Amino acid sequence: MKNFLVLFKHIAKLSFRKKGNWVTFLLLPILGVFAALAFNKDASTVTRIGVLDLNKSYITVDMISGLKENDSFQIVELKNEKFESLLKDRKLDCVVKVPKDFSGKIMQGTTSKLGIYSIKGQTTTIWIENYLNFYIDNLVSIGKIADTNDQYKQIYQGYKNQGIKLNKISVGDVSKSKGVTKSSIGFLLVFMLMASRAVTNYIITDKRTKTYTRIFCSSTTKIQYLLANIVTNLLVFTIQLAIILVLSLVVFKLNFYISIVNLIILFLSFGLVAMSVGVIIATISNSTNQASQLANIVIVPTSMLAGCFWPIELMPSYLQKFALILPQTWVLKAVDKLQHGAGLEGVLIDILVIISFAVILTMISILKMTKEDDVKNIIA
Q: Please, where are the H alpha helices in 172-253?
């Protein structure tokens, strides 16, 4: 325990003594918050809907006009079926395709399904689906009592012009905002992994200056050395987390739709993973350049696969399954559950999996260091 405390004090002094380190400690969380802020500014409550009307009857014309009158929808009428690029480029949130036989089935009292396409999942399409289903159900009911098309049109006009008074109230649709804040948290995870380079640099520097060798000539064990590095840098990370939360929640008033306690627990759990990643990179690297390159190879691709930069639902199913071996995926899964009303007990398994990643990575680092017969010369 005494050796651990001595190492902890030594590493802490190195961390906080250099003014350049303070710039890094403060700059990373600030950049992370501004990235999250940029994402949240893009969170619009208006859903951009493309409508492809292949039926072009008076029923569909009125239906599209009704959609345009809804302040929550921005309607774009499409001319052809080549709308995939508009969805991929996020120029549209979803597309509603009206089939050619739509009005014919409706007049016969048969439900006609619309094609609704989106790459953002059900959270984007659920409102438009409910809106259209309610409208279509009323049209189908008219078709069941009308004997001819002329009679259907007459009843329809009466339904359309009926003197029904509606009270309009605003109901907040936060589903899209939740998706945006989830992406914001994904970017914060990337910045946490970047912060793990600090622990990598400390270990590499110790190797280069032979401090590493001298430490293990004493009674200090490799486990004590690694844990001292992890705990010290976790302390730094906690300070950065405090800055992130104060700027996000107090200064910029960002809403993550998660209780502050649960958010802190998630971030600290992933902080352990980030520190463990820094340690394992240091143990298998022979130079600072190699460690830097390896960090870039690990951080960016894994974050992309885990859904930190875009919704994981956009990726093929086999990549979504592969992403389960990445800790970022489990953090974002927990975020999704918490945003949809789950309590801390609902994400305990996710948190345990995240912590398990940290334990496994640390154990691998310890085994790697234990099997080393000697410490090689490190090239700066």
A: 175-195, 197-208, 211-216, 222-245
